[in-house]
Each structure stands twice: as C-alpha cells, then as structure tokens.
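Bench notes, afternoon.
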Amino acid sequence: MDRVTSMAVFVKSVEGGSLAAAARHFGLSHAMVSKHLRGLEQSLGVRLLTLTTRRLTLTEAGDNYFRRCVQILADIEEANREAMQLQAVPRGLLRLTAPVTFGEQHLAPALAAFLARYPDIVLDVELTDRFSDLIDEGFDLALRIGRLPDSALVARRLGASRMITCAAPAYLARHGTPAHPSELAAHRCLYLSGVTTPGEWWYEAGGGRMTVRVDGPLRTNSIALACQAARAGAGIVFGPAFALAPSIAAGALVPVLEDFAGAALDIHALYLSKRHMSKKLRLLIDFLAGRFAPPVGMDGV
C-alpha cells in the first residue's frame, strides 16, 4: 500500500476528528480508510491512534508522527507544484529593496543580466539604507549587508564581502600609517552604524580574532558618506570591500593593516516564506546567489 497515501489518510483523519472525515475527503470506504491506518501502524510497529465509537485520540507516537507527516506532505505538494511550473515562463512584477551603495555598484549589473535572461519579469527596485518592512511596504525581497535583526523573515546567505581598512594618502601623510590595530586608538576613525558595533572594529590574524576600540568624528549608516569623508582626509574608514574598492583602485584611498583581515560581511536575501515563494522570486534569489558567491568587490584590492 502506498505510504504517502496512507500518511495523507492518517493526517486527514486526525484533522477531521474521525475516519469518516477522511473517507469523505478521499472518496474511500470506511473499511479502506481503516486498512490504510492499520497498514501504516503495522509498517511502523507502533500504535498511532486510539479509536472509540465517539472519538479519535492520538498516542504520543501518533502525535509526533502527525506533525512530521503534515510537513512531509506539504513538501511533497510544493515539489509537485514546482515540477508543474517548470515549463511555465516566469513573468510579472517583483519588488525588492537593497542598500544604496551596494545596489548602485553591484546589484545594478546583476539585475541587468537577470532581466536579459528573463525578459518577461519586471523589477521594481528601491535603494535605501534603512530597514524596509517587507509586509507593510509590499516588497518580495530585501538584500541586507552585515548583522541581521531578529525577525520572522527567511534569510538566505548569498555571499560576503570582507571588511577592509583604508585612508586617504593625505591623511596618512599627516597622521602616520598604523602598523597594528591597537594603534587605531590614536587615529580619527570613521565608523558605520548597522555594520559594526559603534566604537569597535574587529580583525582576524593568526587564527584568532581581536576587537579594538576606536573613536572619531563621524558615525553614519551611509557607506558612501563614510567613503567620501575618508577620501577627503577626515580619517580612517573600516568598511566593506565592495564599497571601498573603487576608491582604492582610483588611488583616492590606500589600504592599511593589510596583515590583519577584517571579518567577512555577509550578504543576505530576506523574504517572507519558502512555502509560498513564487517561481520568479526563487529564480532571482538563485541568480543572485550565483552572482555573489565569490567575495564581492575584491578586484583590485
């Protein structure tokens, strides 16, 4: 007897509170429903249900098995739905939000390539450094860089960009170049809220991790602002390579403390639910994961 069918009969019996409920739902006889349940218990070697003339009661094993069956059947349903949709052409609107600098420098070319592959999909993109509410603002997807706040959203890691330390040549000429993270205490440091802990930068060296206290004239949630301030000689900046690499390539910023790597900054896709994800959203997330799997923004650093 088909195990999946028996599991479905078992779940529907429990949900309906009787064997008759399962019989009506599947168009089976009462005897056939009983046969499915007996076969399931015999194959498992455990009693799942206690039946009386008035009620159906789950045993402890039955209760655990019921909850697992519900999830398994939902996964099977989703797999069937995906298989049926495989030949369908993905089309329609997707709304997403992402940080400004990352969106302009790295997401834009990725989305252009995605649209070339799926011309019937329309993207509505909002770039902002604030944390948008996906439900209230109607977004299908949000990209986040760095620490994630606690939420009920599903998070998928797409890739990472390591943190690097740099400053303008003019600043280093005036104040000197730090040779060790501990020397940052004597420098003007520009730090990013929402990316690092205020007043703390972290480095990895020799298999360990060190945290150093820093202070300075600027705290901002804008990577672009911190980068421009550093280019103008306001201080040393500690930020993601994807944002600082263009300035380094142009000679406007110089890497320092290169023997002390900054920890990787994760790039995540956040969305509402795996169970009800549309095909076009899954395609976009998979595409971005492939695009950002290598460290982002490392060329020329």
